[in-house]
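Hi R.,

Here's the chain you asked about this morning:
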Amino acid sequence: MFDCMALFNSRKCACYNFFLTNGAEDLAIMAMRGILLEGSLLGESVSLEKLLTRLAYSNLHVMLLFTNGQDPSEKVDLLKQLSVSEFVKVVSVDANENVLKAIKESWPVQASHSVFVASTDGAAVTELTASGWNILYSGQGVASKEASTIQDIDDVFAALAELNKKAFGVELLVVGHVMKWSREKDFLKRRMLPSVPTSNDLVFVPLRTDRPMETQLDAVDIILHKATDEIVSVTTIQTPNPAERIQYSDSIKTLQRYIEEHPGKCIVDPIDRLAPILDRSLTREVLNDLEDAKVSDTTVVRAPRSVEVKDLEEPHLTEAVSVGFPTIVKTMMACGTNDAHTMAVVFKKEGYVNLAVPLPAVVQEYVDHGSCVYKFYIIGDKVMHSCRRSMPNAASMAVSDGSSGGMPALVFDSLKSMPSSFEGDGKLLSNTVVEGDGSLDVEAVEKAAVWLRKKLGLSIIGFDIVVQVGTKDHVMVDVNYFPSFKDVSDKESIPAFWATLRNAHASKTAST
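And the predicted structure, written out as tokens:
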């Protein structure tokens, strides 16, 4: 038997400790590939939806076992409701029925690479142990000090990661991640965060925000976060360090403190580098250097002309007007506040009067671009892009509102509904997909992407390029951190994402 207890004691991890019941030589060949869970344990979960969804898209073979007359119908209905019944199977076994016989036809994983999670000893544990399965107990009621235990069923992902770590050795890296559930669920469904080792030897573990974070962070090799999902508040008061204006959730604050105390730990990406993306005034400062970078001899790649305004009274009104018309007015903070996505297209000076966009703000030139925005994604050393339908040219939006001069401004929420082209009778034009007119200089923008990555010191970035009608200037109108990159092929983006994490760890290790 192989004893992992010392490993966890050394890491002071109170969440779980266990030993392996099979030889390490078997695990070195293949990691854990299947998990059988006692159905009664599901009641321990803080969120059954999250647990079952994570299991379903973990790349593990997953089965729920109900014994001694337990009724599985409620869980079967939930699996259907979550649309994961295809990936999480359910089996019921009578008191006198052999468990192995019951699951044999639908269990393709070798015993030595299978884990049974139970609440206590019983007939199923006896049978599976004798057949070479790994046994993991969940809960505090296990009498044996030698038993492999986790505190509750939600710890199973961390336990599996440690089992796989022992199977693969130091080459396997454990990635602990924290992000809002809707984003994690999207990534899970795309098989981006598997519990089974990836092709480049990574496994992913959700960090539990309902538990002390420090001990969990000790047990991972890479910390992956989407801190922009965890912004609690933002102050408009200017500070010497712009990052201090942003207040994050307790879990992100814990990450920040942990990294300060453990500078050798790999984090993707450093949280203190996000301010230039979150604060549009800082983004503006960064992008103002873009044109001078001369990334192309033939194509102009630049930022939009813009000014910052504290209000829309004089003298700031004159500054706003100096940008020209039309303009697009954006709040200073790009995310983290309820009105971060409230914007306005202003067609004339009168449009600035009582404009319903929170101040301070950035006033940018509105670039006519034929309703096509190019979404670029920087994923480590890879740059990918797609074309998406966007806002129309300004003349199409400035339709008459009953006055002789047309509307002075158009306010909208960019997350809910983008302005669309209108016909003379006010009807929306058909929402056709725009493919672009072939004027995009991909090579020039890819060079700009390399420049931006180095400038920001970040490894996962998204930015938008529009090609100006007439001049063909390539204008970088928006930058964001850790986009979903769902517009590009998963076959390209996901391996690039995994490689980025692996390379970040290698770079951090080499520098410490």
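The domain at 2-169 is CATH 3.40.50.1000 (Rossmann fold).

Let me know if you need anything else.
M.
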